[in-house]
Amino acid sequence: MEQKLFQAAKALMVRRYPTGWGGVAALVTESGKILTSVAPETQNDALALCMEVGACLEAYKINEKVTHSLCICRESENANILILTPCGICQERLSYWGGDVQVAVSTLDNRLLFKQLRELMPYHWSIVNGISL
């Protein structure tokens, strides 16, 4: 599933950003659907959204649990594709579906590696409510 997710994200990157910078997110839902999204360009950085937001909203709309998340970017069409760990805000967004969501993480050798979300957030604030990821 991880390779399939990466290939879907890469295919959207090539289509949406044939030249220059590109960034794409891809999520998998419990039924195996792959949902992809990009970050909208804005004139005001305060309005910026992460690449994952569109796919997260789509998963929520169709009422399916997210099982995997991947975010990639590149500086130009000739640059290496980099795997990005979800930012803290996106980790919170993904926590809606629980700590077992598999998220791609950045590594020094840029290999495709997934970890459970709870591994990224071992001291998540929800523990004070008797809930843990």
UniProtKB/TrEMBL annotation:
Q: Which SUPFAM superfamilies match?
A: Cytidine deaminase-like (SSF53927)
Query: What molecular function terms (GO) are annotated for this protein?
Result: catalytic activity
InterPro entries recorded for this chain? Cytidine_deaminase-like
Domain of life of the organism in this record? Answer: Bacteria
Signal peptide: which range, if any?
none
Recorded protein name is Cytidine deaminase
